Amino acid sequence: MVRARSGRVTSRLAAALAAAVLASAGILAAGTAPAAAAPPAAHTPTAHTSAVPGHAVTGYWQNFDNGATVQKLRDVNDAYDIIAVAFADATDRPGAVTFNLDPAVGYASVDDFKADIKAKQAAGRSVVLSVGGEKGAVSVNDGASAQNFADSVNGLMDEYGFDGVDIDLENGLSATYMTQALRAVHAAHSGVVVTMAPQTIDMQSPQTEYFKTALGIKDFLTAVNMQYYNSGSMNGCDGNVYAQGTVDFLTSLACIQLTGGLDPSQVGLGVPASPRAAGGGYVDPSVVNAALDCLTRGTSCGSFTPSTTYPGLRGAMTWSTNWDAAGGDAFANQVGAHVHSLP
């Protein structure tokens, strides 16, 4: 996800194009089981356990002002079932994160922010803390940093009442240690909501670190909302190359995850809420809805048609609720309504 007003094209585009040839329609087995996690630090878990609907809409809420509409959590459109608070901050302990409420969003106090979290939860929504983003500097690459990550996330869930965590690390991650960290979070909070927002290059094959992480926590993973933008052209599951910003790009790349081991309920389509929200890859809400229909119903497809339908597909995600609000909530109103009407 991007903090800059104009967005950015990923610096790994060249690598993406080179690696695209590795993608195929083949189904690969999940990676080797991760190392066992150390016991989580003792604490009192939060009482709230969120129930994410079968078809869900995820939106990132900006804890900063970059030219999009500044919102409090209470202002986020009710179409969003999962609200990812962007972003956690790194600390001086490797792997550990914290959260600093930005005064720019207008809260009088941290307690007011916590009250908004509770209000959203009372209305049936989940609020998770996103780790990463374009400028995220969190690194979980050994056992100690994995434990630091888990301990800090567990502590923030208890302190703020977050329902879980979103992984949006855009500078690489270790499947072994991120899986270990997330399993330690799950051990402390069995109802944790875990979402992920990898870039397209990170999900081209079940052998990539992001994909292996998703498969390594498949038993409690909520959704992978891949970023179908800031990408350039990529291979689809049929081996053909598709350009971003098209219905075929959305459906053929989702197919890689759907045939590579993830359950349909764990796959969502991540798109920018407006042209200003990303460097490239924006699609009109009607294109997102066509892709959803293609994947779930076998209708409204482009040149690529999946070999089967996936009526249990989780839904869609957008960066961000703030950019959506700046555009009159077009994503929430159009895509949100469509997701909630899926079979």
What labels describe this entry?
343 residues, 12 strands, eight-stranded parallel beta barrel, 16% strand, TIM Barrel, alpha/beta, 9 helices
Plain-language structure description:
The protein is of the alpha/beta class and 343 residues long. It has a single domain, classed as Alpha-Beta Barrel (TIM Barrel), CATH 3.20.20. Helices cover 30% and strands 16% of the residues. It has helices at residues 13-19, 110-122, 143-160, 175-188, 209-216, 247-259, 285-297, 321-326, 330-339; strands at 56-62, 82-86, 89-90, 97-98, 126-133, 164-169, 193-196, 223-227, 234-235, 241-242, 267-272, 315-319. The strands form three sheets. An eight-stranded parallel barrel has the order 1-2-5-6-7-8-11-12. It has a two-stranded antiparallel sheet with strand order 3-4. Strands 9-10 form a two-stranded antiparallel sheet. α3 runs parallel beside α4 (175-188), α6 packs parallel to α7 (285-297) and α7 (285-297) packs parallel to α9 (330-339). The chain starts with 12 loop residues before the first helix and ends with a helix. Mean pLDDT is 88; it is low at 3-48.
